[in-house]
Amino acid sequence: MSLRLGDTAPDFEQDSTEGRIRFHEWLGDGWGVLFSHPADFTPVCTTELGLTAKLRDEFSRRNVKAIALSVDPVDSHHDWIRDINETQGCTVNFPIIADHDRKVSELYDMIHPNASDSLTVRSLFIIDPNKKVRLIITYPASTGRNFNEVLRVIDSLQLTDEHRVATPGNWESGSDVVIVPSLQDEEEIRKRFPKGYKAVKSYLRMTPDPRTNWSGD
Ligand code: BEZ
Q1: Domain extent for 189
Q2: Ligand 1, closest atom to CA 46?
Q3: 142: Cβ below 6 Å to ligand 1?
Q4: Residue 137 CB less than 6 A away from ligand 1
Q5: The domain that contains 92 carries what CATH number?
Q6: Based on the domain organization, do 136 and 33 belong to the same domain?
Protein backbone atom coordinates (compact mmCIF):
# COMPACT_ATOMS: atom_id res chain seq x y z
CA MET A 1 0.00 0.00 0.00
CA SER A 2 1.23 3.48 -0.73
CA LEU A 3 2.32 5.89 1.96
CA ARG A 4 0.05 8.60 3.26
CA LEU A 5 0.66 11.81 5.15
CA GLY A 6 1.21 11.10 8.83
CA ASP A 7 2.51 7.57 8.25
CA THR A 8 5.85 6.62 9.74
CA ALA A 9 8.49 6.77 7.00
CA PRO A 10 9.60 3.16 6.48
CA ASP A 11 13.07 2.42 7.81
CA PHE A 12 15.56 0.63 5.55
CA GLU A 13 19.19 -0.24 5.10
CA GLN A 14 20.70 0.32 1.68
CA ASP A 15 23.98 1.14 -0.11
CA SER A 16 24.75 4.73 -1.02
CA THR A 17 27.56 6.93 -2.25
CA GLU A 18 28.36 7.59 1.41
CA GLY A 19 28.34 3.92 2.42
CA ARG A 20 25.64 1.79 3.94
CA ILE A 21 22.70 3.88 5.17
CA ARG A 22 20.41 2.88 8.02
CA PHE A 23 17.75 5.42 7.23
CA HIS A 24 16.24 6.27 10.61
CA GLU A 25 19.66 6.31 12.24
CA TRP A 26 20.98 8.50 9.41
CA LEU A 27 18.06 10.94 9.84
CA GLY A 28 18.85 11.34 13.54
CA ASP A 29 16.57 13.85 15.23
CA GLY A 30 16.25 16.27 12.32
CA TRP A 31 14.12 16.60 9.21
CA GLY A 32 14.75 14.68 5.98
CA VAL A 33 14.03 15.03 2.27
CA LEU A 34 14.15 11.72 0.43
CA PHE A 35 13.77 12.03 -3.32
CA SER A 36 14.02 9.64 -6.23
CA HIS A 37 15.04 10.34 -9.81
CA PRO A 38 14.66 8.10 -12.86
CA ALA A 39 18.28 7.45 -13.78
CA ASP A 40 21.89 8.60 -13.63
CA PHE A 41 23.39 10.53 -16.57
CA THR A 42 20.08 12.12 -17.52
CA PRO A 43 19.78 15.88 -18.06
CA VAL A 44 16.91 16.89 -15.78
CA CYS A 45 18.19 14.76 -12.89
CA THR A 46 21.62 16.34 -13.30
CA THR A 47 20.14 19.80 -12.74
CA GLU A 48 18.03 18.64 -9.79
CA LEU A 49 20.96 17.15 -7.93
CA GLY A 50 23.06 20.22 -8.66
CA LEU A 51 20.33 22.45 -7.20
CA THR A 52 20.07 20.30 -4.08
CA ALA A 53 23.83 20.51 -3.55
CA LYS A 54 23.79 24.30 -3.90
CA LEU A 55 20.92 24.59 -1.41
CA ARG A 56 22.81 22.73 1.31
CA ASP A 57 23.08 25.78 3.59
CA GLU A 58 19.36 26.43 3.21
CA PHE A 59 18.58 22.82 4.14
CA SER A 60 21.04 22.88 7.07
CA ARG A 61 19.58 26.13 8.40
CA ARG A 62 16.25 24.30 8.67
CA ASN A 63 17.86 21.19 10.20
CA VAL A 64 17.10 19.14 7.08
CA LYS A 65 19.22 16.45 5.43
CA ALA A 66 18.68 15.56 1.77
CA ILE A 67 19.15 12.11 0.28
CA ALA A 68 18.58 11.08 -3.35
CA LEU A 69 17.84 7.67 -4.85
CA SER A 70 17.77 5.79 -8.11
CA VAL A 71 18.04 2.15 -9.07
CA ASP A 72 21.52 2.67 -10.59
CA PRO A 73 24.55 1.16 -8.84
CA VAL A 74 26.96 3.05 -6.56
CA ASP A 75 29.80 3.08 -9.15
CA SER A 76 27.50 4.75 -11.65
CA HIS A 77 26.41 7.31 -9.05
CA HIS A 78 30.06 8.16 -8.33
CA ASP A 79 30.86 8.60 -12.04
CA TRP A 80 27.78 10.74 -12.50
CA ILE A 81 28.58 12.92 -9.47
CA ARG A 82 31.75 14.01 -11.29
CA ASP A 83 29.57 15.21 -14.18
CA ILE A 84 27.10 16.94 -11.84
CA ASN A 85 29.90 18.80 -10.08
CA GLU A 86 31.48 19.79 -13.37
CA THR A 87 28.34 20.90 -15.20
CA GLN A 88 26.36 22.44 -12.32
CA GLY A 89 29.29 24.16 -10.59
CA CYS A 90 28.67 22.42 -7.28
CA THR A 91 29.94 19.71 -4.98
CA VAL A 92 27.39 16.99 -4.38
CA ASN A 93 27.30 16.91 -0.60
CA PHE A 94 24.56 14.40 0.19
CA PRO A 95 24.25 10.64 -0.33
CA ILE A 96 22.66 9.02 -3.37
CA ILE A 97 21.11 5.66 -2.57
CA ALA A 98 21.83 2.82 -4.98
CA ASP A 99 18.54 0.98 -4.90
CA HIS A 100 19.69 -1.90 -7.12
CA ASP A 101 17.21 -4.37 -5.64
CA ARG A 102 14.41 -1.75 -5.54
CA LYS A 103 13.91 -2.36 -1.85
CA VAL A 104 13.44 1.32 -1.02
CA SER A 105 11.60 2.12 -4.26
CA GLU A 106 9.00 -0.47 -3.38
CA LEU A 107 8.71 0.58 0.26
CA TYR A 108 8.04 4.16 -0.86
CA ASP A 109 6.05 3.28 -3.99
CA MET A 110 8.47 5.12 -6.25
CA ILE A 111 7.98 2.91 -9.30
CA HIS A 112 4.79 3.67 -11.18
CA PRO A 113 4.44 0.95 -13.81
CA ASN A 114 2.29 3.03 -16.15
CA ALA A 115 5.10 5.59 -16.29
CA SER A 116 7.98 3.09 -16.31
CA ASP A 117 8.09 -0.44 -14.97
CA SER A 118 11.79 -0.30 -14.17
CA LEU A 119 12.72 3.30 -13.26
CA THR A 120 11.67 5.40 -10.29
CA VAL A 121 9.54 8.47 -10.95
CA ARG A 122 10.37 11.83 -9.32
CA SER A 123 8.99 11.13 -5.85
CA LEU A 124 9.81 13.38 -2.93
CA PHE A 125 9.04 12.92 0.75
CA ILE A 126 9.52 15.40 3.59
CA ILE A 127 9.99 13.53 6.87
CA ASP A 128 9.81 15.23 10.26
CA PRO A 129 11.91 14.57 13.39
CA ASN A 130 9.29 12.03 14.57
CA LYS A 131 9.91 10.14 11.29
CA LYS A 132 6.42 11.01 10.06
CA VAL A 133 5.79 11.68 6.37
CA ARG A 134 4.68 15.31 6.05
CA LEU A 135 4.73 15.90 2.28
CA ILE A 136 4.53 13.59 -0.71
CA ILE A 137 4.95 14.90 -4.23
CA THR A 138 5.30 12.97 -7.46
CA TYR A 139 6.52 14.54 -10.68
CA PRO A 140 6.88 12.93 -14.08
CA ALA A 141 10.32 12.21 -15.54
CA SER A 142 9.97 15.12 -17.98
CA THR A 143 9.50 17.79 -15.30
CA GLY A 144 12.22 18.82 -12.88
CA ARG A 145 11.13 19.75 -9.37
CA ASN A 146 11.25 23.21 -7.82
CA PHE A 147 13.52 22.89 -4.77
CA ASN A 148 12.62 26.39 -3.59
CA GLU A 149 9.09 25.04 -3.22
CA VAL A 150 10.44 22.19 -1.11
CA LEU A 151 12.12 24.74 1.19
CA ARG A 152 8.90 26.79 1.28
CA VAL A 153 6.91 23.76 2.44
CA ILE A 154 9.51 22.98 5.12
CA ASP A 155 9.22 26.60 6.34
CA SER A 156 5.45 26.23 6.49
CA LEU A 157 5.58 22.87 8.30
CA GLN A 158 8.09 24.12 10.85
CA LEU A 159 6.09 27.31 11.46
CA THR A 160 2.70 25.61 11.72
CA ASP A 161 4.09 22.94 14.06
CA GLU A 162 5.13 25.73 16.41
CA HIS A 163 2.20 28.16 16.15
CA ARG A 164 -1.57 27.75 15.70
CA VAL A 165 -1.49 29.08 12.16
CA ALA A 166 -1.69 27.84 8.58
CA THR A 167 -0.03 29.38 5.56
CA PRO A 168 -2.02 30.72 2.60
CA GLY A 169 -1.47 29.96 -1.06
CA ASN A 170 1.86 31.19 -2.43
CA TRP A 171 2.94 32.07 1.13
CA GLU A 172 6.60 32.87 1.62
CA SER A 173 8.40 32.99 4.95
CA GLY A 174 7.81 36.36 6.63
CA SER A 175 4.48 37.18 5.00
CA ASP A 176 1.08 37.06 6.72
CA VAL A 177 -0.41 33.76 7.87
CA VAL A 178 -3.91 32.67 8.85
CA ILE A 179 -5.06 31.82 12.36
CA VAL A 180 -6.39 28.25 12.43
CA PRO A 181 -10.22 28.25 12.46
CA SER A 182 -10.31 25.98 15.54
CA LEU A 183 -8.80 28.77 17.64
CA GLN A 184 -11.74 30.93 18.76
CA ASP A 185 -10.91 32.08 22.29
CA GLU A 186 -10.17 35.81 21.99
CA GLU A 187 -7.98 35.93 25.09
CA GLU A 188 -5.84 33.08 23.82
CA ILE A 189 -5.68 34.73 20.40
CA ARG A 190 -4.45 37.97 22.00
CA LYS A 191 -1.77 36.07 23.91
CA ARG A 192 -0.66 34.02 20.95
CA PHE A 193 -0.78 36.85 18.44
CA PRO A 194 0.19 40.08 20.21
CA LYS A 195 0.60 41.72 16.82
CA GLY A 196 -3.16 41.47 16.35
CA TYR A 197 -5.10 40.12 13.40
CA LYS A 198 -7.41 41.25 10.65
CA ALA A 199 -10.68 39.34 10.21
CA VAL A 200 -11.33 39.49 6.46
CA LYS A 201 -14.17 37.02 7.14
CA SER A 202 -14.92 35.28 10.43
CA TYR A 203 -13.07 32.21 9.11
CA LEU A 204 -10.26 34.14 7.41
CA ARG A 205 -8.14 35.89 10.02
CA MET A 206 -4.78 37.18 8.86
CA THR A 207 -1.91 37.86 11.24
CA PRO A 208 1.76 38.67 10.70
CA ASP A 209 4.16 35.72 10.57
CA PRO A 210 4.71 35.03 14.30
CA ARG A 211 8.43 34.54 13.71
CA THR A 212 9.02 38.04 12.43
CA ASN A 213 10.00 40.84 14.77
CA TRP A 214 7.31 43.28 15.60
CA SER A 215 7.96 46.95 16.13
CA GLY A 216 4.63 47.46 17.93
CA ASP A 217 3.38 49.97 15.35
C1 BEZ B 1 16.02 13.44 -17.17
O2 BEZ B 1 16.36 13.41 -15.99
O3 BEZ B 1 16.46 14.27 -17.93
C4 BEZ B 1 15.06 12.42 -17.69
C5 BEZ B 1 15.00 11.18 -17.12
C6 BEZ B 1 14.13 10.25 -17.64
C7 BEZ B 1 13.31 10.58 -18.72
C8 BEZ B 1 13.37 11.86 -19.24
C9 BEZ B 1 14.25 12.78 -18.75
Answers
A1: 163-207
A2: 2
A3: yes
A4: no
A5: 3.40.30.10
A6: yes
169 lines ligand 1 (CB under 6 A): no
Pocket test for ligand 1, best of 41, 45, 96, 111 (most atoms within 8 A of CB): 45
Q: Is 39 in the pocket of ligand 1 (CB under 6 A)?
A: yes
Q: Are residues 41 and 135 in the same domain?
A: yes
Taking the C-alpha atoms of residue 38 and residue 208, their distance in angstroms, rounded to an integer, is 41
Ligand 1 centroid to 6 CA: how many Å?
Answer: 30
Whether this prediction's pTM lies above 0.70 is answered by: yes
For this structure, is 45 an active site residue?
yes
Dihedral, CA of residue 187, residue 191, residue 194 and residue 199, to nearest 10:
-40
Q: Do residues 173 and 90 share a domain?
A: no
Q: Give pLDDT tens digits for 117-158.
A: 999 999 999 999 999 999 999 999 999 999 999 999 999 999
Q: What's the CA-to-centroid distance between 166 and ligand 1, angstroms? A: 35
Q: What secondary structure does DSSP assign to 74-127, as a single string?
A: HHHHHHHHHHHHHHHTS---S-EEE-TT-HHHHHTT---TTT-SSS--EEEEEE
Residues for the chain: how many in total? 217
- Do 175 and 80 belong to one domain? no
